[in-house]
Design brief:
Length: 189
């Protein structure tokens, strides 16, 4: 499955919320109000993966793959099918945060999640993050395998993190070498 990544548009919201409801059980999935809150937070961004049928690749100012919609069908802009999305934010002290990554069931294990994760990591790196963290339920075995395959390590357990009482694991990945405080270069001459 070929997919491209683009920035969120307001008309995508209802579809993204429905995808979130399909991807996560009650107690972990977001209400519309919660999802809207995270997507609107200062420093946050939302990326969409869609099939490539109505899209062309482009690059934004940070070099992140984007897509632009081409053509008109019956007066409406041609839309590609949304396969997944990711919400992330730059963080304090250089650690970005993946708020959620959601991929529709039919697009799982087709590279869509990896494409979204790489695009978000690239954007966070370009914004100055040296690491990225996220939370996932302790029993989400497929997510844990996915994140470990992408270089994430478990760094902490958060007891009763989710509203249903489920614990979460915090995973983190280094994006670039952390700058050393007070480090200096020696001149060679």
């Amino acid at each position: 499955m070929s997919a491209t990544v683009r920035d969120f548009q307001p008309e995508d919201f209802d579809t993204l919320w429905r995808i979130d409801q399909e991807c996560f059980p009650p107690g972990i999935s977001y209400s519309q109000m919660e999802l809207r809150f995270y997507m609107r937070r200062s420093g946050s961004f939302t990326l969409i993966a869609s099939d490539g049928s109505a899209l062309t690749d482009g690059r934004d100012s940070t070099g992140i793959a984007r897509a632009s919609v081409l053509g008109h069908l019956s007066g409406d802009v041609a839309r590609a099918t949304i396969r997944g999305f990711i919400v992330a934010e730059g963080g304090r002290r250089g650690v970005g945060h993946i708020i959620t990554i959601d991929v529709v069931a039919a697009a799982r294990r087709c590279g869509v999640g990896s494409l979204l994760l790489r695009a978000a990591e690239d954007r966070l790196r370009a914004a100055g993050s040296f690491a990225v963290a996220l939370e996932t339920a302790v029993d989400n075995v497929s997510a844990l395998r996915f994140y470990k395959r992408h270089g994430y390590d478990v760094i902490q357990t958060l007891p009763r993190y989710y509203s249903d009482g489920m614990d979460a694991l915090v995973l983190q990945k280094e994006l670039v070498a952390k700058p050393l405080i007070g480090a200096h270069r020696e001149s060679s001459g």
